[in-house]
Amino acid sequence: MRTFVIGDIHGGLLALEQVMKRAEVTTEDTLIFLGDYVDGWSQPVEVIDYLIELKRRQNCICIRGNHDQLALDWLEERHDNFDEEMWYKHGGKATVESYAKISAEKKKAHIAFLENLQDYHLDDQNRLFVHAGFTNLNGVKWEYFSKLFYWDRTLWETALSLDPKLKPDDINYPKRFTVYDEIYIGHTPVTRIGKTVPVQKACVWNVDTGAAFRGPLTIMNVDTKEYWQSEPLNELYFNEKGRN
Known about the structure:
This protein is α/β, with parallel strands linked by helices. Helices cover about 30% and strands about 15% of the residues. InterPro entries: Ap4A_hydrolase, Calcineurin-like_PHP, Metallo-depent_PP-like.
């Protein structure tokens, strides 16, 4: 049995199907999805359908992304502190158009799926899986604001700026990076630093390889660090804009 982590999908079902096939995933494997299943390409409904069915067949852990929460707020007509125009520009348009085609029964099932997403997953090897990050120096169990699990960018920014020569026992070493043996995140595409493959900084692995834009989707074996990627999403969905 293997354990895989999958980066941000953003409505790209074709890419998800590709990486599942290329990694030769079986029903014996555990799959940890880091969130952002919607907002971007034209198949958010189909992605969630796929995940709902997948959870029936094997062990799947689905983490909540910020775009998933935005879509849920829209589906449940919660407008407090929700900038619908901004969301629409950042991928929400594709989600709105996709959900215009579904039945009330399916919409109800998708709302239940989104409501039951996990804020994070901590495994028995002290490896943390979270969409964006956390800010409490003692770890996720002490986080004051749960929204930061799917909105924070300071964890990744700190990891990027950290001097590689600084050792974990140094007084200046960020305490957040000593709590867990490994941290797996998405949220901030590595394409922002010119990469299209998973990037490790300190104990943090970022596996968002830019599938919302012009990058591929990535699935990675968390034990061996071997990874497989789809074709770039703008090539799979050549007649769409995505979030570009």
